[in-house]
Write a structure and sequence with these properties.
heterodimer; A: mainly alpha; elongated; B: mainly alpha; 6 helices; about 80% helix
Chain lengths: ~150, ~120
Protein backbone atom coordinates (compact mmCIF):
# COMPACT_ATOMS: atom_id res chain seq x y z
CA UNK A 1 0.00 0.00 0.00
CA UNK A 2 1.37 3.37 -0.90
CA UNK A 3 1.56 6.28 1.45
CA UNK A 4 -1.34 8.11 -0.14
CA UNK A 5 -3.80 5.29 0.52
CA UNK A 6 -2.79 5.02 4.19
CA UNK A 7 -3.14 8.75 4.53
CA UNK A 8 -6.60 8.65 3.00
CA UNK A 9 -7.61 5.85 5.31
CA UNK A 10 -6.40 7.74 8.35
CA UNK A 11 -8.28 10.82 7.25
CA UNK A 12 -11.38 8.71 6.74
CA UNK A 13 -11.07 7.22 10.24
CA UNK A 14 -10.72 10.70 11.68
CA UNK A 15 -13.77 11.87 9.75
CA UNK A 16 -15.84 8.95 11.09
CA UNK A 17 -14.69 9.62 14.63
CA UNK A 18 -15.45 13.34 14.43
CA UNK A 19 -18.92 12.79 13.03
CA UNK A 20 -19.96 9.99 15.36
CA UNK A 21 -22.78 11.06 17.71
CA UNK A 22 -21.22 12.24 20.94
CA UNK A 23 -22.90 11.28 24.18
CA UNK A 24 -24.41 14.59 25.21
CA UNK A 25 -24.60 13.80 28.89
CA UNK A 26 -24.15 17.33 30.18
CA UNK A 27 -26.80 18.72 27.87
CA UNK A 28 -29.26 15.99 28.85
CA UNK A 29 -28.66 16.60 32.55
CA UNK A 30 -29.34 20.32 32.12
CA UNK A 31 -32.53 19.66 30.21
CA UNK A 32 -33.74 17.18 32.84
CA UNK A 33 -33.00 19.76 35.54
CA UNK A 34 -34.86 22.56 33.73
CA UNK A 35 -37.97 20.56 32.80
CA UNK A 36 -38.14 18.76 36.17
CA UNK A 37 -37.59 22.04 38.00
CA UNK A 38 -40.27 23.87 36.01
CA UNK A 39 -42.79 21.13 36.79
CA UNK A 40 -41.72 21.34 40.45
CA UNK A 41 -42.60 25.04 40.43
CA UNK A 42 -46.05 24.28 38.98
CA UNK A 43 -46.54 21.61 41.66
CA UNK A 44 -45.50 24.04 44.36
CA UNK A 45 -47.95 26.65 43.06
CA UNK A 46 -50.82 24.13 43.00
CA UNK A 47 -49.95 22.84 46.48
CA UNK A 48 -49.97 26.37 47.89
CA UNK A 49 -53.27 27.06 46.17
CA UNK A 50 -54.97 23.97 47.60
CA UNK A 51 -53.47 24.56 51.05
CA UNK A 52 -55.08 28.01 50.97
CA UNK A 53 -58.45 26.73 49.73
CA UNK A 54 -58.80 23.71 52.00
CA UNK A 55 -56.16 23.37 54.68
CA UNK A 56 -57.59 20.03 55.87
CA UNK A 57 -54.66 17.79 56.56
CA UNK A 58 -53.53 15.81 53.55
CA UNK A 59 -56.29 16.91 51.20
CA UNK A 60 -53.95 19.24 49.33
CA UNK A 61 -51.56 16.34 48.68
CA UNK A 62 -54.31 14.40 46.93
CA UNK A 63 -55.60 17.37 44.95
CA UNK A 64 -52.08 18.44 43.90
CA UNK A 65 -51.25 14.94 42.63
CA UNK A 66 -54.59 14.72 40.82
CA UNK A 67 -54.20 18.15 39.20
CA UNK A 68 -50.70 17.32 37.97
CA UNK A 69 -51.98 14.02 36.60
CA UNK A 70 -54.80 15.86 34.85
CA UNK A 71 -52.37 18.38 33.34
CA UNK A 72 -50.15 15.54 32.13
CA UNK A 73 -53.15 13.76 30.61
CA UNK A 74 -54.37 16.84 28.72
CA UNK A 75 -50.88 17.70 27.42
CA UNK A 76 -50.54 14.10 26.24
CA UNK A 77 -53.88 14.26 24.43
CA UNK A 78 -52.73 17.44 22.66
CA UNK A 79 -49.47 15.77 21.67
CA UNK A 80 -47.47 18.37 23.59
CA UNK A 81 -46.13 16.10 26.31
CA UNK A 82 -44.32 13.88 23.82
CA UNK A 83 -42.35 16.90 22.60
CA UNK A 84 -41.54 17.91 26.17
CA UNK A 85 -40.44 14.34 26.90
CA UNK A 86 -38.22 14.19 23.84
CA UNK A 87 -36.46 17.37 24.91
CA UNK A 88 -36.46 16.90 28.68
CA UNK A 89 -35.74 13.17 29.05
CA UNK A 90 -36.00 12.15 32.70
CA UNK A 91 -37.13 15.69 33.52
CA UNK A 92 -40.43 14.87 31.85
CA UNK A 93 -40.60 11.16 32.70
CA UNK A 94 -39.98 11.33 36.45
CA UNK A 95 -42.59 13.94 37.48
CA UNK A 96 -46.09 12.62 38.12
CA UNK A 97 -47.21 14.31 34.89
CA UNK A 98 -45.01 11.76 33.11
CA UNK A 99 -46.76 8.98 35.02
CA UNK A 100 -50.05 10.30 33.59
CA UNK A 101 -48.38 10.51 30.18
CA UNK A 102 -47.46 6.80 30.23
CA UNK A 103 -51.08 5.88 31.07
CA UNK A 104 -52.77 8.13 28.52
CA UNK A 105 -50.32 7.55 25.68
CA UNK A 106 -50.52 3.76 26.18
CA UNK A 107 -54.32 3.98 26.11
CA UNK A 108 -54.19 6.02 22.89
CA UNK A 109 -51.55 3.81 21.33
CA UNK A 110 -53.28 0.47 22.04
CA UNK A 111 -56.81 1.69 21.36
CA UNK A 112 -56.55 0.17 17.89
CA UNK A 113 -56.03 -3.29 19.40
CA UNK A 114 -59.52 -3.11 20.85
CA UNK A 115 -61.33 -1.57 23.79
CA UNK A 116 -60.86 -4.48 26.16
CA UNK A 117 -57.56 -6.15 25.25
CA UNK A 118 -55.99 -2.99 23.80
CA UNK A 119 -57.00 0.15 25.67
CA UNK A 120 -58.21 -1.65 28.78
CA UNK A 121 -55.33 -4.01 29.41
CA UNK A 122 -52.40 -2.03 28.04
CA UNK A 123 -53.18 1.28 29.75
CA UNK A 124 -50.89 0.40 32.67
CA UNK A 125 -48.09 -1.14 30.64
CA UNK A 126 -45.50 1.22 32.22
CA UNK A 127 -47.49 2.72 35.08
CA UNK A 128 -48.36 -0.79 36.32
CA UNK A 129 -44.94 -1.64 37.78
CA UNK A 130 -44.82 1.77 39.47
CA UNK A 131 -48.21 1.12 41.02
CA UNK A 132 -47.42 -2.45 42.08
CA UNK A 133 -44.06 -1.72 43.70
CA UNK A 134 -45.20 1.62 45.08
CA UNK A 135 -48.15 -0.11 46.75
CA UNK A 136 -46.08 -2.97 48.14
CA UNK A 137 -43.31 -0.67 49.41
CA UNK A 138 -45.79 1.84 50.83
CA UNK A 139 -47.77 -0.91 52.54
CA UNK A 140 -44.70 -2.54 54.09
CA UNK A 141 -43.12 0.68 55.33
CA UNK A 142 -46.50 1.89 56.59
CA UNK A 143 -47.11 -1.41 58.34
CA UNK A 144 -43.69 -1.31 59.99
CA UNK A 145 -44.17 2.29 61.09
CA UNK A 146 -47.65 1.71 62.55
CA UNK A 147 -46.43 -1.44 64.33
CA UNK A 148 -43.48 0.41 65.86
CA UNK A 149 -45.63 3.34 66.93
CA UNK A 150 -48.15 1.01 68.56
CA UNK A 151 -45.39 -0.86 70.39
CA UNK A 152 -44.00 2.38 71.78
CA UNK A 153 -47.41 3.47 73.07
CA UNK B 1 -37.95 31.51 47.99
CA UNK B 2 -40.25 28.50 48.20
CA UNK B 3 -40.41 28.36 44.42
CA UNK B 4 -36.62 28.22 44.17
CA UNK B 5 -36.46 25.25 46.55
CA UNK B 6 -39.32 23.56 44.69
CA UNK B 7 -37.45 24.01 41.42
CA UNK B 8 -34.18 22.72 42.88
CA UNK B 9 -35.77 19.73 44.60
CA UNK B 10 -37.77 18.50 41.64
CA UNK B 11 -35.00 19.34 39.18
CA UNK B 12 -32.33 17.49 41.15
CA UNK B 13 -34.40 14.32 41.48
CA UNK B 14 -34.83 14.41 37.70
CA UNK B 15 -31.07 14.91 37.24
CA UNK B 16 -30.49 11.85 39.42
CA UNK B 17 -32.84 9.86 37.21
CA UNK B 18 -31.15 11.21 34.06
CA UNK B 19 -27.79 10.06 35.45
CA UNK B 20 -29.25 6.56 35.79
CA UNK B 21 -30.46 6.81 32.18
CA UNK B 22 -26.98 7.80 31.01
CA UNK B 23 -24.78 5.46 32.99
CA UNK B 24 -26.88 2.32 33.52
CA UNK B 25 -28.83 0.08 31.18
CA UNK B 26 -32.04 0.49 33.17
CA UNK B 27 -35.22 1.27 31.28
CA UNK B 28 -37.36 4.27 32.30
CA UNK B 29 -39.76 1.82 33.99
CA UNK B 30 -36.91 0.55 36.22
CA UNK B 31 -35.90 4.08 37.17
CA UNK B 32 -39.49 5.07 37.96
CA UNK B 33 -39.99 1.98 40.13
CA UNK B 34 -36.74 2.66 41.99
CA UNK B 35 -37.73 6.27 42.69
CA UNK B 36 -41.24 5.33 43.81
CA UNK B 37 -40.01 2.65 46.20
CA UNK B 38 -37.29 4.99 47.51
CA UNK B 39 -39.91 7.67 48.17
CA UNK B 40 -42.08 5.21 50.11
CA UNK B 41 -39.16 4.03 52.26
CA UNK B 42 -37.94 7.57 52.95
CA UNK B 43 -41.45 8.54 54.01
CA UNK B 44 -41.51 5.60 56.43
CA UNK B 45 -38.23 6.81 57.92
CA UNK B 46 -39.61 10.34 58.26
CA UNK B 47 -37.04 11.70 55.81
CA UNK B 48 -39.42 12.51 52.97
CA UNK B 49 -41.47 14.68 55.31
CA UNK B 50 -38.34 16.74 56.02
CA UNK B 51 -37.62 16.95 52.30
CA UNK B 52 -41.17 18.19 51.73
CA UNK B 53 -40.89 20.77 54.51
CA UNK B 54 -37.98 22.17 52.54
CA UNK B 55 -39.25 21.73 48.98
CA UNK B 56 -43.00 22.21 49.49
CA UNK B 57 -45.06 21.13 46.50
CA UNK B 58 -41.82 20.47 44.64
CA UNK B 59 -41.42 17.27 46.67
CA UNK B 60 -44.77 15.96 45.41
CA UNK B 61 -43.90 16.33 41.74
CA UNK B 62 -41.29 13.58 41.17
CA UNK B 63 -42.75 10.08 41.26
CA UNK B 64 -40.94 9.56 44.60
CA UNK B 65 -43.64 11.84 46.03
CA UNK B 66 -46.20 9.38 44.76
CA UNK B 67 -44.52 6.55 46.68
CA UNK B 68 -44.23 8.75 49.76
CA UNK B 69 -47.94 9.61 49.51
CA UNK B 70 -48.85 5.92 49.45
CA UNK B 71 -46.77 5.25 52.58
CA UNK B 72 -48.17 8.38 54.27
CA UNK B 73 -51.74 7.26 53.57
CA UNK B 74 -51.05 3.77 54.92
CA UNK B 75 -49.66 5.20 58.18
CA UNK B 76 -52.45 7.78 58.60
CA UNK B 77 -55.30 5.36 57.89
CA UNK B 78 -53.62 2.49 59.74
CA UNK B 79 -53.53 4.59 62.88
CA UNK B 80 -57.05 5.89 62.39
CA UNK B 81 -58.92 2.66 61.65
CA UNK B 82 -56.59 -0.26 62.37
CA UNK B 83 -55.64 -3.04 59.98
CA UNK B 84 -58.20 -2.14 57.30
CA UNK B 85 -56.54 1.24 57.08
CA UNK B 86 -53.22 -0.37 56.16
CA UNK B 87 -54.89 -1.41 52.90
CA UNK B 88 -57.34 1.38 52.16
CA UNK B 89 -54.67 3.92 53.11
CA UNK B 90 -52.74 3.04 49.94
CA UNK B 91 -55.28 5.06 47.97
CA UNK B 92 -56.03 7.69 50.62
CA UNK B 93 -53.98 10.40 48.89
CA UNK B 94 -53.28 8.73 45.55
CA UNK B 95 -56.75 7.36 44.71
CA UNK B 96 -58.04 10.70 43.44
CA UNK B 97 -55.21 11.03 40.93
CA UNK B 98 -55.30 7.37 39.89
CA UNK B 99 -59.02 7.44 39.18
CA UNK B 100 -58.53 10.70 37.30
CA UNK B 101 -55.75 9.12 35.21
CA UNK B 102 -57.87 6.08 34.31
CA UNK B 103 -60.97 8.13 33.46
CA UNK B 104 -59.02 10.75 31.50
CA UNK B 105 -56.99 8.06 29.72
CA UNK B 106 -60.14 6.20 28.69
CA UNK B 107 -61.97 9.17 27.23
CA UNK B 108 -58.88 10.69 25.63
CA UNK B 109 -58.09 7.37 23.92
CA UNK B 110 -61.65 7.27 22.57
CA UNK B 111 -61.41 10.66 20.87
CA UNK B 112 -57.71 11.43 20.29
CA UNK B 113 -55.43 9.64 17.86
CA UNK B 114 -51.72 9.19 18.64
CA UNK B 115 -49.40 11.26 16.46
CA UNK B 116 -47.25 9.24 14.09
Amino acid sequence: MDGKAIDAQQRYQKLVKDNAPKPKVGRNLWRAFLVGGALGVIGHFLYGLFEAIEPTKGESTATTLASLIFIGAVLTALGVYDSIAQWGGAGAAVPITGFANTIVSAAMEFRREGLILGLGSRMFVIAGPVLVYGTVAGFLTGLAKVAIMNLLH
Amino acid sequence: MGYVWAFLASGLVCVLAQLLYEYTKWTPAHVLVLLTVTGAILEGLGVYRLFQNWAGGGALVPVSGFGASIARGVVAEGQRMGWEGLFSGVFEYTGLGLAAAIIAGFFIALVAKPKE
